[in-house]
Amino acid sequence: MADQPDLHITDTVTIPMAELQFHFSRSGGPGGQHVNRTATQVELTFDVQQSASLDEAQRARVLSKLKSAIDSRGVLHLTCQTTRSQFRNRAEVTERFQHLLRQALHVPKPRRPTRPGRAAAERRMQEKRRVGILKQERRRQQPVDE
Questions:
Q1: Residue 91 falls within a domain, yes or no?
Q2: If you average pLDDT over residues 51-76, what whole number do you get?
Protein backbone atom coordinates (compact mmCIF):
# COMPACT_ATOMS: atom_id res chain seq x y z
CA MET A 1 0.00 0.00 0.00
CA ALA A 2 2.93 2.35 0.60
CA ASP A 3 3.74 2.42 -3.13
CA GLN A 4 0.39 4.05 -3.90
CA PRO A 5 0.21 7.84 -4.14
CA ASP A 6 -1.32 9.93 -1.40
CA LEU A 7 -4.97 10.92 -1.71
CA HIS A 8 -5.39 14.57 -2.64
CA ILE A 9 -8.52 15.85 -0.88
CA THR A 10 -8.25 19.65 -1.03
CA ASP A 11 -5.47 22.16 -1.69
CA THR A 12 -4.41 21.94 1.96
CA VAL A 13 -5.29 18.34 2.86
CA THR A 14 -3.59 15.21 1.56
CA ILE A 15 -4.17 11.84 3.21
CA PRO A 16 -1.36 9.26 2.98
CA MET A 17 -2.57 5.82 1.90
CA ALA A 18 -0.87 4.45 5.04
CA GLU A 19 -3.64 6.08 7.14
CA LEU A 20 -6.33 4.11 5.30
CA GLN A 21 -7.01 0.51 6.18
CA PHE A 22 -8.84 -1.90 3.91
CA HIS A 23 -10.61 -5.05 5.10
CA PHE A 24 -12.01 -7.60 2.68
CA SER A 25 -14.88 -10.02 3.20
CA ARG A 26 -17.40 -11.97 1.20
CA SER A 27 -20.16 -9.82 -0.15
CA GLY A 28 -23.82 -10.73 -0.22
CA GLY A 29 -26.30 -10.87 -3.05
CA PRO A 30 -26.33 -12.82 -6.31
CA GLY A 31 -23.18 -14.11 -7.92
CA GLY A 32 -23.30 -17.87 -7.41
CA GLN A 33 -20.07 -19.75 -6.81
CA HIS A 34 -17.93 -16.64 -7.42
CA VAL A 35 -19.48 -14.70 -4.54
CA ASN A 36 -19.17 -17.73 -2.24
CA ARG A 37 -15.44 -18.10 -2.84
CA THR A 38 -14.03 -14.58 -3.17
CA ALA A 39 -13.77 -11.70 -0.72
CA THR A 40 -14.91 -8.82 -2.91
CA GLN A 41 -16.58 -6.59 -0.31
CA VAL A 42 -14.22 -3.81 0.74
CA GLU A 43 -14.43 -1.89 4.02
CA LEU A 44 -12.32 1.24 4.28
CA THR A 45 -11.53 2.53 7.78
CA PHE A 46 -9.93 5.88 8.52
CA ASP A 47 -9.09 6.97 12.06
CA VAL A 48 -10.24 10.58 12.06
CA GLN A 49 -9.43 11.00 15.76
CA GLN A 50 -5.75 10.01 15.38
CA SER A 51 -5.04 11.28 11.86
CA ALA A 52 -1.88 13.35 11.54
CA SER A 53 -3.10 14.77 8.22
CA LEU A 54 -5.89 16.85 9.77
CA ASP A 55 -5.53 19.85 12.05
CA GLU A 56 -7.92 20.33 15.00
CA ALA A 57 -10.41 22.52 13.11
CA GLN A 58 -10.55 20.08 10.18
CA ARG A 59 -10.89 17.11 12.54
CA ALA A 60 -13.81 18.75 14.38
CA ARG A 61 -15.46 19.60 11.07
CA VAL A 62 -15.15 16.03 9.75
CA LEU A 63 -16.36 14.53 13.04
CA SER A 64 -19.47 16.71 13.03
CA LYS A 65 -20.29 16.42 9.31
CA LEU A 66 -19.76 12.65 9.02
CA LYS A 67 -20.97 11.58 12.47
CA SER A 68 -23.38 9.01 11.00
CA ALA A 69 -20.46 7.07 9.46
CA ILE A 70 -18.04 7.50 12.38
CA ASP A 71 -18.07 5.15 15.38
CA SER A 72 -17.59 6.08 19.05
CA ARG A 73 -13.78 5.75 18.77
CA GLY A 74 -13.63 8.31 15.96
CA VAL A 75 -13.09 5.84 13.10
CA LEU A 76 -14.81 6.40 9.76
CA HIS A 77 -16.22 3.22 8.14
CA LEU A 78 -17.16 2.95 4.45
CA THR A 79 -18.04 -0.25 2.60
CA CYS A 80 -18.53 -1.15 -1.04
CA GLN A 81 -19.77 -4.37 -2.62
CA THR A 82 -21.37 -3.09 -5.82
CA THR A 83 -19.12 -4.94 -8.28
CA ARG A 84 -17.77 -8.49 -8.48
CA SER A 85 -14.21 -7.19 -8.53
CA GLN A 86 -12.31 -6.48 -5.32
CA PHE A 87 -10.10 -4.04 -7.20
CA ARG A 88 -13.05 -2.01 -8.54
CA ASN A 89 -14.80 -2.04 -5.15
CA ARG A 90 -11.60 -0.77 -3.55
CA ALA A 91 -11.27 2.01 -6.14
CA GLU A 92 -14.93 2.94 -5.69
CA VAL A 93 -14.78 3.11 -1.88
CA THR A 94 -11.58 5.19 -2.08
CA GLU A 95 -13.22 7.61 -4.50
CA ARG A 96 -16.28 7.86 -2.24
CA PHE A 97 -13.98 8.52 0.74
CA GLN A 98 -12.30 11.37 -1.16
CA HIS A 99 -15.66 12.86 -2.11
CA LEU A 100 -17.08 12.63 1.43
CA LEU A 101 -13.99 14.16 3.01
CA ARG A 102 -13.92 16.95 0.42
CA GLN A 103 -17.57 17.77 1.19
CA ALA A 104 -17.01 17.60 4.96
CA LEU A 105 -13.99 19.93 4.80
CA HIS A 106 -15.71 22.48 2.55
CA VAL A 107 -16.28 25.72 4.45
CA PRO A 108 -19.14 27.64 2.86
CA LYS A 109 -18.52 31.27 2.06
CA PRO A 110 -20.36 33.48 4.57
CA ARG A 111 -23.35 35.25 3.10
CA ARG A 112 -23.14 39.01 3.03
CA PRO A 113 -26.60 40.52 3.33
CA THR A 114 -27.38 42.82 0.43
CA ARG A 115 -30.12 45.31 -0.27
CA PRO A 116 -32.21 45.53 -3.42
CA GLY A 117 -30.97 48.05 -5.95
CA ARG A 118 -32.77 51.28 -6.80
CA ALA A 119 -34.22 49.88 -10.05
CA ALA A 120 -35.59 46.79 -8.26
CA ALA A 121 -37.20 48.94 -5.56
CA GLU A 122 -38.77 51.15 -8.25
CA ARG A 123 -40.15 48.09 -10.11
CA ARG A 124 -41.62 46.83 -6.86
CA MET A 125 -43.32 50.16 -6.17
CA GLN A 126 -44.73 50.36 -9.72
CA GLU A 127 -46.16 46.85 -9.36
CA LYS A 128 -47.75 47.81 -6.02
CA ARG A 129 -49.33 50.89 -7.64
CA ARG A 130 -50.61 48.81 -10.56
CA VAL A 131 -52.19 46.22 -8.24
CA GLY A 132 -53.73 49.02 -6.14
CA ILE A 133 -55.33 50.62 -9.22
CA LEU A 134 -56.59 47.20 -10.33
CA LYS A 135 -58.24 46.65 -6.95
CA GLN A 136 -59.74 50.15 -7.03
CA GLU A 137 -61.33 49.44 -10.41
CA ARG A 138 -62.91 46.26 -9.05
CA ARG A 139 -64.80 48.18 -6.36
CA ARG A 140 -68.44 48.95 -6.83
CA GLN A 141 -68.91 52.21 -8.67
CA GLN A 142 -71.07 54.87 -6.94
CA PRO A 143 -73.88 56.14 -9.17
CA VAL A 144 -73.33 59.71 -10.24
CA ASP A 145 -76.44 61.98 -9.70
CA GLU A 146 -76.89 64.47 -12.49
A1: yes
A2: 89
Q: In CATH, what number is assigned to the domain containing residue 89?
A: 3.30.160.20
What domain count does the chain have?
1
Question: Domain of 86?
Answer: 7-105
HEC profile of the chain: CCCCCCEECCCCCEECHHHEEEEEECCCCCCCHHHHHCCCEEEEEEECCCCCCCCHHHHHHHHHHCCCCECCCCEEEEEECCCCCHHHHHHHHHHHHHHHHHHHHCCCCCCCCCCCCHHHHHHHHHHHHHHHHHHHHHCCCCCCCC
Q: Taking the model in full, what pTM does it have?
A: 0.69
Q: pLDDT (tens digit, 9 = 90+) per residue, 16-62?
A: 888 899 999 887 766 677 777 788 889 999 999 888 888 899 999 99
The CA distance from 69 to 63, in Å, is: 9
